[in-house]
Amino acid sequence: MSLVAGIDSSTQSCKIVVCEADTGTVVREARVPHPDGTEVHPDAWWEALTQASAGLLEGVEAVAVAGQQHGMVTVDDHGEVVRPALLWNDTRSAGAAADLVDELGGAGAWADAVGTVPTASLTAAKLRWFAEHEPAAASRARGVMLPHDWLTWKLSGSERPTTDRGDASGTGYWDPAGNTYRTDLLEHAFGRQLDLPRVASPDEAVGRTPEGALVAPGTGDNMGSALGLGLRPGDAVVSLGTSGTVFAVGDHPSHSPQGAICGFADATGRYLPLVCTLNAARVLDATAAMLGTDLPGLDRLATLAEPGAGGIVLLPYLDGERTPDLPGAAGSLHHLNRDNMRPENIARAAVEGMLLGLADGLAALTDSGVPVERVQLVGGAARSEAVRAAAPTVLGAPVEVPPPAEYVAIGAARQAAWVLAGTGEPPEWNVGEPEFTAQPQEIAGLHERYARVRRDTHGV
Ligand SMILES: Nc1ncnc2c1ncn2[C@@H]1O[C@H](COP(=O)(O)OP(=O)(O)O)[C@@H](O)[C@H]1O
Ligand SMILES: O=C(CO)[C@@H](O)[C@H](O)COP(=O)(O)O
């Protein structure tokens, strides 16, 4: 029995699974937390990966890394990291993103060029911020890569860093439809050229670990999750980790001139239209802390409240927001009165507020022609009973919760198994029967109330 490993280097932690290559059965796993913050030195990811993999990778024949998308890792002439990585959720590059959009002639020009309109999250916007605000450090940068590229490079010991279509498509200087770097846009953003990782093909071995395991190209975490879940047409994923994401896999590049949908590539040669919010599981963490309880306590409270939270609306923009593009926004609670201002309703409003932003994302996907027959709910906050119960109605679609597992890491492991097998397509791995399934119901006024409050407060 061959073993493969998948690594999910995500915002809050490094998770590793070791799976049987033929079936995907997880035989061992580990998790080590990452430091908090929106700027993190890549060495901290390496340390977490090293700790999590200690004693875990015995007998593993192939490995792949899926990582949080967009993070800017810059290296100097000697391959040393120039400054801590700016992460996908660091909003200091919001002004740079707005400048880039204007300079190219508006959102539509970016959608045409690279399928995605820059927000603060995109690597191109971070590079512009870096060049403008830290010119001395920026002048030392020789190359730029993404978190998974850097970790894959360290693991494989390859001469030149590599990336894959999926993660490259989140930079703002790689065109998924043309399968090519737009070095003109990189130069426009940063002011000069930088060395870029080679884009490996989806099933290519890019090196070997010191122990001799094959290293697969890896990918971005959302692309890893799509591979781990084995998405089919009609499936959409709602992932509730640090970020909230909603995405599907398709055969054609997406094009969203208004910018809500990021037109990413997937990890298999296809496409992955995605909408991302900055505020997901941590909205529940923060609400639980505010109410003086823990996550199970928040769940109990939210379950006691009626759908609609007695009319209370939480706009959950605790870390600013990416979709809608409101990087400087703060969260706000609306429609409180003496009757409804109870912990149960606040807990429920947090669950609904987190999901309502993703309901808008799902509507944007379906309006753009993506077929959605069911939503698969994954990520840390999909473990919450209250979230599971509210999701079908708030999202307006049938919801399934697959067996709880680290699907990003499993997707990376499936890619590693694909590279090991040398077959045309990834091996068939069975995800198993859903742990929870529910149909949507009508809640009068819920979506309208949220949209009205958002419009009145933020004008969008
Ligand atoms: N039962 C639960 N209810 C709500 N949130 C949960 C639960 N279990 C874990 N979480 C949250 O999930 C988040 C981590 O999810 P994860 O998908 O691992 O994030 P990331 O991939 O962004 O690092 C944390 O914020 C944690 O509090
Ligand atoms: O920026 C995006 C997607 O475009 C985020 O989804 C990041 O990829 C971080 O993911 P998590 O750590 O929240 O899973």
From TrEMBL:
UniProt binding sites for substrate: 69-70
Gene: xylB
Gene Ontology BP, a term: D-xylose metabolic process
Keywords: ATP-binding, Carbohydrate metabolism, Kinase, Nucleotide-binding, Transferase, Xylose metabolism
Organism the protein comes from: Nocardiopsis kunsanensis
EC number: 2.7.1.17
Carbohydrate kinase FGGY N-terminal domain segment(s): 4-213
Family: Belongs to the FGGY kinase family.
Matches recorded under InterPro entries: ATPase_NBD (IPR043129), Carb_kinase_FGGY (IPR000577), Carb_kinase_FGGY_CS (IPR018483), FGGY_C (IPR018485), FGGY_Carb_Kinase (IPR050406), FGGY_N (IPR018484), Xylulokinase (IPR006000)
Site (Important for activity): 8
Pfam families membership: FGGY_C, FGGY_N
The protein, known as: Xylulose kinase
